[in-house]
Amino acid sequence: MELRKAFKSDANSIMNIIKQAQDYFKEQEIDQWQDNYPNYETVCNDIANNYGYVLLKDNIIVGTAAVSFDGEKTYEHIYDGEWISDGEYVVIHRIAIDSKYKGKGLASLILENVEKICLGKNVHSIKIDTHRENLAMQKLLKKNGFKYCGIIYLEDGSGRIAFEKIF
């Protein structure tokens, strides 16, 4: 398997995986990734900004994530806790796995690959947030060594629980 930067030609495949995740959240009554977010424009912006990544299995896109070394405005203030570190970090957003491949450890594989990318840039912190009701993501993060840090608020005012991993 290979994690590589996403190309514009990958946008439809990425959106297909994101749509699966949106449908799953809706079925589970989790108010995350609803109201047309993330959408095709979000995915194209990720690709244009070099944030978009895809996980390939036999040249088929089976996972996606947005990975940014540019900081995150909404992470400047954290409530009911604190970040583990205050140095350089990478942010992971919009991680999703094709529903046909769920439960095979692929999201963990994406996280491991992002760590390798970080080490290549001498960055030793990953920060990520998720919806309070997204228990699957919380379990994934804890399993992969992320520590709960507190609450951050998105630009629309909705709260998310924040995690960080130092390596």
Helix-strand layout with pairing:
Blueprint: E1 2-5, H1 11-27, H2 40-48, E2 52-57, E3 60-68, E4 90-97, H3 106-120, E5 125-130, H4 135-143, E6 147-153, E7 159-166
Parallel strand pairs: 4-5
Antiparallel strand pairs: 1-2, 2-3, 3-4, 5-7, 6-7
Helix pairs in contact: 1-2
Protein name: GNAT family N-acetyltransferase
InterPro entries: Acyl_CoA_acyltransferase, GNAT_dom, YpeA/RimI_acetyltransf
Organism: Anaerosalibacter bizertensis
Shape: globular
CATH homologous superfamily placement:
Gcn5-related N-acetyltransferase (GNAT)
Q: What structural class do the secondary elements suggest?
A: alpha+beta
Question: Strands of the biggest beta sheet: in what spatial order?
Answer: 1-2-3-4-5-7-6
Number of strands: 7
Overall number of domains: 1
The CATH topology is Aminopeptidase
> Portion of residues in helices?
25-40%
Q: Which whole number gives the mean pLDDT? A: 97
Give the CATH level 1 class.
Alpha Beta
* Radius of gyration over all CA atoms, rounded: 15 Å
- Runs in which pLDDT lies below 50 for 5 or more consecutive residues are none
Number of contiguous helices: 4
Distance N terminus to C terminus? 23 Å
CATH architecture: 3-Layer(aba) Sandwich
Strand content: 25-35%
For the report, how would you describe the main beta sheet?
7 strands, mixed
